[in-house]
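User: Hey, quick favor. My workstation is busy. Could you predict this chain's structure for me?
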Amino acid sequence: MKKYVLLFALLAEALLVCAQDPIDSVKVEDFKIPSTPGFALLDLAPSTIQRPSNPKQFAFSLLNFTGNSGALPKDFALEVTPYWFLKLKNETFYKYSSVSDGEYNNYFTGILRKMSISLSTHFNDSGKNFLPKTNYVSFGVRTNLITIWGRSQTKEMKTYLTAFKSIAGRVAAMDLSVQKKADTLDALQNEELKKIKRFGAIKPLFQVDVAYAHADMFAENKYDNRQFYKNAFWINAAFNLPLKNSGYLYIIGYGRAGKENLLTDTAKRFFIRDSHVDIGVKLEYEQNKFSVGFEHIQRTYSSKTQYNGKRTVLIVQYKIDNNLNLYCTYGKNFTELNNLFTLFGINWAFGNGLLKTRPE
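Assistant: No problem, here it is.
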């Protein structure tokens, strides 16, 4: 199965990269490629508290925990954003990014546009905090509920888009091939827009994302042994504060409510159903391609309070480009036993994210 997942990821990349960039369209940036809701539900994500960002057409994630006995990662996730495959021809950047176009304040336009669907899998071959020799499969969905831009950010964005449209118009009138026009547009952007704040660095003032995930477990990796494991609904609310050095400070609040089959006896495979509530906060500093974050979450069960726990981790991430992120996490996970949490992860995301600056 893992071979097919990798093959599908490479095929998707090949298909999406082949698309030609229209001259009258601007690339959406700020692709942070967050971990899938399925990994977050299983408490395996490098960061449970995710900053809202722009999802690409297709994303593929690999996790590798430092305590694994094998060298190859055993945790995979696929995520697809239907919008990028189904969007209307005249869809504009303003609606997608919830930027005011002068006529409407597009606060809620990300609900369908930024909705993503994901599938995650984790195979556990030892005891620890999961049932041994068991495959955990989770389905997740998330979207942007509301995005609000401050006046200064809106002004910066419109300044950039106005300058871009001017350059694109000049390039479109040139008697050049499509590829030459694309190269010329890139060169003029680098030359004439260098005094304007980097496009991808212009972020909204406030964003709220919501997500839901459901996970089942398959003992001995058999479908007939399918059993409910967890489900949860959660919300992330982020303030994005620009700093004088062109960096950003993110303050993110987190709340989650769900149900879980608590594994109380690994040897006897004994479970107890209970509900839980998570409350947490995350501070993240981002400078260009580098970011470092600290998150703390308190988990409380409704009846089995002896399983209450805390998650406190440090997350370091490096964005190689808009298609590839590397990250590592170190800290304490929720359980009292086997709670050292250290992992390395890779996220690939594919798709050009092109949107028109104005409707035709």
